[in-house]
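W.,

You were right to be curious about this one. When I first looked at the sequence I had no strong expectations either way, so I just let the prediction run and decided to look at it fresh. Below is the sequence, 91 residues in total, followed by the output.
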Amino acid sequence: MNLRDFKKDVEYFIGEFVDDCTLFVSLNPDKADDKVAAVLEEAVDLYNEMKDKANAKVEGKKAAYFTALRKEMFDKVDALYEKLSGIVSAK
């Protein structure tokens, strides 16, 4: 795992989450726009946080650092998907 791969993963996975949110809002305009907007804001914050961490100066083993960052990103994206799923399933 290196910096370039990690940045591509951040772009892809958070971008896909944003696309899923946008698709949900466009197909269900009457459902919880404010809640989806809040989750989208969290996704943007996560994107910025991951990019900042990726660009930080790393001492020691870079591969281990980026592997840990990748795991952190996946855990946080999963949490965002769970929030979106809760919004989708709410009536």
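Here's what jumped out at me. Residues 20 and 70 are 21 Å apart (CA to CA). And, maybe more interesting for your project: The chain has three helices and no strands.

Coffee later to discuss?

I.
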